[in-house]
User: What shape does this take?
Amino acid sequence: MKKMTAALAVLAALILACPPACAVGTNASCAILMDAESGRVLYEQNSHQPRLIASITKLVTALVAVEQAEDLDAVVTVKGEWLGSEGSSIYLKAGEEITLRGLLYGLLLQSGNDAAMVIACHTAGSVEEFVALMNRRAAELGMRDSSFANPSGLNDDNHYSTAYDMALAAQACLKNETVAEICATRSITIGTRTFVNHNKLLYRFEGCVGMKTGFTEKAGRTLVSAATREGQTLICVTLNDGDDWNDHMKLLDYGFKTYPRQALCGRGEALGSVTVEGSLIPTVAAVTAEEAGYPLKETEALTMDVELADFVRAPFEAGQPMGEAVWRKDGEIAARVPLVAQSGAGLDVREPLTLWQRLGALLGGAA
Assistant: This one.
């Protein structure tokens, strides 16, 4: 009886010490669950391990193309030398005319490799130049363990990424209204083509806002998904996962239930005041320039510090930088929001005249 009691005590201790990630798992080689707003990682499994990623590559392709484009409704004339890519296709033909926007729908919904090639060549003049843009953008996003060799995701030794890096790419795509809108589209008819989104989570999971699927025999099934509930958006990425639909639903549910978004501040919330010099207004309120939130478990809490300028000199307008509010978790910065002047102030108090200015005034008066 004593041995059994001891064993139960050890088991209870292990359960209490086990981190939240023990509550969920996946069939993937690599996985991550990230809060889109804060970037906080809520679950990870080999998230920094580089692997083949297949067609989830096309999120980066779309992001680069949209950011580079001057007009998404510009008509693209398909050139024969841009065609011939293997794999999934929207069956473009040489000489055909289609808008860049239409190509993007074919890229993200139907996963057309031919659409990827045409987008790349139209945008940058060649696949090589477009790939250079992809790698440059990836570096800007902090995707340190990624390398792109083509715009479609076909297997290549120099084409790889990680679950963490692709979550960063997904963050950027969600911030881009055009890419986010296309990813969330279930189906659309453009000209004679009807594109149907391959992402089954759009139909199966409450709040899913899409993203991208991928598959090659060497890469296995890859998937990036995102979902929004009660103002919180979560990103999930799995690489080489034979049960990705179910794994994503479990991870997303886990994230929303375990790490709900806690509001930190609203926009325009006063968090202090700053002394005004050179004006009849003695102080000006320092207010938050934007709202902020952070995912927290019930047992977690943040500390907040307000860092303000010593003074501000008139004249200035509303929106003048005043400092920032910083929230920390276990000493690490979790969120920060700029603080700005709630209102402006005019120059009501003149600066003392210099000696030369006083002499000039006297001489002017004597004349």
In short: Residues 61 and 151 are 6 Å apart (CA to CA). Residues 2-17 form the longest helix (16 residues). The chain has ten helices and 17 strands.
